[in-house]
Amino acid sequence: MTEELKKAAAQKALELVQDGMLLGLGSGSTAKYFTEGVGRLVAEGMKLRAVPTSRATAELAAELGIPIVQEPVGPIDLAVDGADEVDGSLDLIKGRGGALFREKLVAAAAKRFIVVVDESKLVRELGVGVLPVEVLPFLWRTTAERLTALGASLTVRGGEEAPYITDNGNLILDLLVEGGIKDAASFGDALKRTAGVVEHGLFVRMTDTLIVAGPEGPRVVGRLSGGAVARPNSAQDK
Ligand code: 5RP
Asked: Of all residues in the chain, what percent carry a pLDDT higher than 90?
């Protein structure tokens, strides 16, 4: 069922794609359905180019014959990506798939950032599960100490013996903030000021449109139209 919902959300986002667009292609299982759809549009003759948010997405896009642009001049027209948690203000936690740094760069470079999720990702307050933070491997233990001083407990993704390494050659520390993240903007700012942090998975005021799929079909919610989508915390740590 969840796969059907993810597909339905991605399919709805495809309706926004127009000939000539430069697209941002997200990472993860929901965004993959969007990329596959873009591949179909290209095969049908639509002129599209894309900036992928991870090596995995770049490989998939290449397999599907989607022209890839590494260093675009000017903005991306439309970026579409999944999320791990979405709150009622359409703020997000992303990065449980490990691609948060490039995902944030692509979202920030886009005129319009569309988030596609199934309804299991909706939370009342961010921080139900872990918040991924990408850190430089150099002196990472000291970075971890500064992060725990912010009130979080953390684990090294993959474990210290064989840590997960991002596409950018960095580590991911998965932070758990007990009681949830009360003020995502200020917590994100504090993370950004922490020496050693490359990027964090809080996407605050970046979402233009949320497409959330439930059993009744996909629903479109715009941040600027003040769409509240909150429901009791339910996202599970992946
Ligand atoms: C990867 C991400 C993904 O967008 C996020 O993990 C959602 O993935 P999925 O659609 O597979 O649930 O942020 O870094």
From this structure: 92
Residue 223 falls inside a structural domain: no
Find tokens 């969840």 and name the residue.
2
Which CATH number do you get for residue 79?
3.40.50.1360
Domain count of the chain? 1
- CB of 82 sitting under 6 A from ligand 1: yes
Contact call for residues 174 and 238 (beta carbons, < 8 A): no
Distance CA(187)–CA(59), nearest Å, equals 34
Question: Which pTM value belongs to this model?
Answer: 0.93
Neighbours of 224 (CB within 10 A): 8
Residue 224 has pLDDT above 90, yes or no: no
Q: Which domain holds residue 160?
A: 1-214
* Catalytic site residue from 85, 103, 119, 134: 103
pLDDT at 223: 57
Separation of alpha carbons 184 and 92, rounded Å: 9
Q: Is 80 a domain residue?
A: yes
Ligand 1 pocket member 120 (CB < 6 A): no
